[in-house]
Amino acid sequence: MKAGRAPARRTQAERRAAAEAALLRAAAEMIVERGVERASLRSIGVRAGSSRELPAYHFGSKEALIARLADRAQQQAIAAISAALDRAQRNRSDLTAFETLCVTMDTYLELFAAADAEARAVVVLWGASLPTESDLPVVHEVARLRHRELTGQIRAGQQDGSIRADVDPAAAAVVVMGMVRGAAAMSLAQPDAADPTQVRKLCGDAISAFLRGNDKSATGPA
């Protein structure tokens, strides 16, 4: 019998990507367990099973590592939202802005309620960014971008008639983001407080009542 073919050796780029992924996973786990301040680069390297110096080599600083972690979590969220929209088995161009918004918020809640360390680390980063002297500019910037995008979605819903016209889009975006973030924080702090599925359903109901109200011309999810 012929000997099996030896597995192809990974390229340098593949090895680097794998090392960075392991470090980001270790960083997320430590942030969830210990908080941002106590998650040092050296301890992250040890958790990842590599040298203590490797995180600094790959990212340069703890701030840069956190920025990469936040970006990676956002890209994962975008991919999850895209998959959720595909599962709706409808042409995305046929979805109203309100329907797209509901899928987006529900997917975020699903991610934050899951056991994935990277999504849960984002919730911890939110809290760490609240002090006035917090040195987490990337977390603030991500929040600004999400608010801007959500405000745009609400405006689009007002234009296509799926969201009531009498709400202020920027203010409504703050309320929706606050509800989703609050539910995510509660799911992390008290995971057994309530059934995550029921929390997601009630959040969806609240968003629908808030953004559609009694406007009979608005059309929500089927």
Would you give an account of this structure?
- The structure is a single chain.
- The protein is mainly α and 222 residues long.
- The chain is 69% helix and 0% strand.
- Helix 5 (97-113) runs parallel beside helix 8 (169-189) and helix 7 packs across helix 8.
- The chain is globular and about 55 Å long.
- The N and C termini lie far apart (59 Å).
Short structural description:
The chain has 222 residues and is an all-alpha fold. The protein is 69% helix and 0% strand.
Chain-wise SSE layout:
Blueprint: H1 12-34, H2 41-47, H3 54-59, H4 62-87, H5 97-113, H6 117-128, H7 137-160, H8 169-189, H9 196-212
Helix pairs in contact: 1-2, 1-6, 4-5, 5-7, 5-8, 5-9, 7-8, 8-9
Name its key features.
globular; single chain; 222 residues; mainly alpha
Report strand %. under 5%
Q: Name the overall outline.
A: globular
Radius of gyration: 20 Å
Helix/strand order? HHHHHHHHH
Distance between the termini: 59 Å
Biggest sheet overview: none
Helix content: 55-70%
- What is the count of helical runs? 9
Contiguous uncertain segments of 5+ residues: 216-222
